[in-house]
Each structure stands twice: as C-alpha cells, then as structure tokens.
Specification:
- With about 180 residues, the chain is mainly alpha-helical.
- It is about 90% helix and about 0% strand.
- The protein is built from 8 helices and no strands.
- The longest helix is centred in the N-terminal third of the chain and has 33 residues.
- The radius of gyration is 17 Å and the shape is globular.
- The two termini are about 20 Å apart.
Amino acid sequence: MKNRTATIWFILLTVLIDVIGVGLIIPIMPQLISQIADVENSQATLYGGLLAAVYSVFQFFFAPILGRISDQYGRRPVLLISLFGLGIDYLFLAFAPNLLWFFVGRIIAGICGASFSTANAYIADISAPEERAKNFGFIGAAFGLGFIVGPLIGGFLGEIGTRVPFMAAAGLTLLNWLYG
C-alpha cells in the first residue's frame, strides 16, 4: 500500500509539473517567436499555431505506439521517456537560435508526448476500484492547478527574460524525470 501511495504521488506530481511547464511558456511564447523569427506578434501567433499543429500531429501518430509500448513494458518507462522528451523540447525552445529549432523541439515533444494518457492508465492500473474515481479527480485537480500556477509563474519569469520560462520548464521537467 505504501508503494502504491508513493506511485500515485509521483503520477500526480508528474501531471502537475507537466502542466506547469506548459503554462510557464504560454505567456511568453509569442514574444520569443517574434524575437527569433524577427516578425510581428500577429505573424508569431501563426507560427505558434503551426508549432501546436506539428506537436499534435506527431502526438496523434506516436501516442498509440507509446501506448502499446506501455502495455508491453510498463507505464513507468513510457512516462519517463515522455518526461525526458518534454525536457529536451523545452531546452530546444530555450536555446533556439532560429525557428527550425522550435519545430524540431515540438516534434520531439509530440513523439514523446504520452505523459497524460500514460498517467491516466497508470492510475487505472494501480487504483483499487473504490479509489479510482478519487484518484482520477486528483489528476484533474493537478491539471487545473498546473494551468493556474504555470502561466502566473511564466509571466513573472518572462519579465526576467524571454527564455527564462523555457529554462524553468526544462529544469522542472528534468527534475521530475530524475525523481521518477
């Protein structure tokens, strides 16, 4: 039971940090794209939309593959691969000298982007039937809290520098990967 509780806390922390990481970069992404691509904010939002689309397309194709791998080899290795890939993505975004690096980072994140589905599957696997709904509720709470806290912190860190939120997101994600 103690091991199960520790695993649930790891999953909840993973979801929280994952969403905080996404939230950290939301307020500053258009500004960084504008700087790197030397375009106006309206053009930067177009590139931001393309980056989101690239991420989504790669996640669409690779999530089922990672799901199959998690069924075969376990949830934890896939969750760790997802965290590591997301950490690498944030580093690409933090140090990108041009827009191509942004796209490469988002492709990596899309390929490895199975943390939420794997976290939910992990909760389903280890939760007793009478605890399952409560544990899924905790995942929802971690997700919501991350989307509140992430942009707040990202906005403050963006005042220090446009790349600082990306470095913070990378640091948080890679620390979570090490914890896992």
